[in-house]
Amino acid sequence: MRFAKGHGTENDFVILPDPEGELQLTKETVRLLCDRRAGIGGDGILRVVRTRALGETLAPAARTAERPEWFMDYRNSDGSVAEMCGNGVRVFAHYLRHAGLVEGDRFEVGTRDGAKGVVVEADGDITVDMGRVEMQGTSSAKLARQAVHGSQISVGNPHLACEVQGPVADVDLSEPPELDAEAFPEGANVEVYTEVAPGVLEMRVYERGSGETRSCGTGIVAAAAAAAPEGEESTWRVRVLGGECTVYLDASGARLRGPATIVAEGGTSLL
């Protein structure tokens, strides 16, 4: 089986080309592929599959994903299925161009959160239309011994974005967050952020199903939305452990711009 390895601000993925949807990805297989010692290593899997090969398996909420030819079947490193991945969409789009599967600088990628428009910028960055960001009130979590409070946000997947005082490096993300099960019945990504300059955030994230990662695209958008004045258009630079992305917020929703890189290609016998 062929594979590629890519990352977006060091949020890294194993890319599996499976045009006709022939692979049966069990949780155990995903975990092995993502294992950084016994496998290829990654925060998740991006399966590259033609949308028509999925048949009736798409949920009603993802029906607009039927428009694009290619669907991003994303799995977290623990084998669980995720609705959306902002860094993953950029890497997926870059791979489609790299592999000659799409032409042009503007196209759509299918996801479980619907079709996402992407633009390949002149400098190689990729901008993704993330759609509307849904602010759902406030909630709290316990991170190791620290309680944090923040905004409950949906960016196609659930987030708790928490502003903290002091450096985000001081926050302990070594253990899974304890969340309000009523507010987050399916769990959530938890972001901690602080504004270090006007329009500039520093952020760390504990991703549901993956642990702390070097970056999280939907988390970057969630942190920017939490920091933004309500109802105002704004642009945010968000610094994460793996680099920096830009978020544009307006009445139509959010756009996420950042780099995407393919670092290796090869074959695996792990499948």
From TrEMBL:
Site feature location: Could be important to modulate the pK values of the two catalytic cysteine residues: 159, 207
Protein role: Catalyzes the stereoinversion of LL-2,6-diaminopimelate (L,L-DAP) to meso-diaminopimelate (meso-DAP), a precursor of L-lysine and an essential component of the bacterial peptidoglycan.
A Pfam family that the UniProt record links to this protein: DAP_epimerase
Record has Lipid biosynthesis as a keyword: no
The protein, known as: Diaminopimelate epimerase
GO-annotated molecular function: diaminopimelate epimerase activity
Coiled coil: none
EC code(s) of this entry: 5.1.1.7
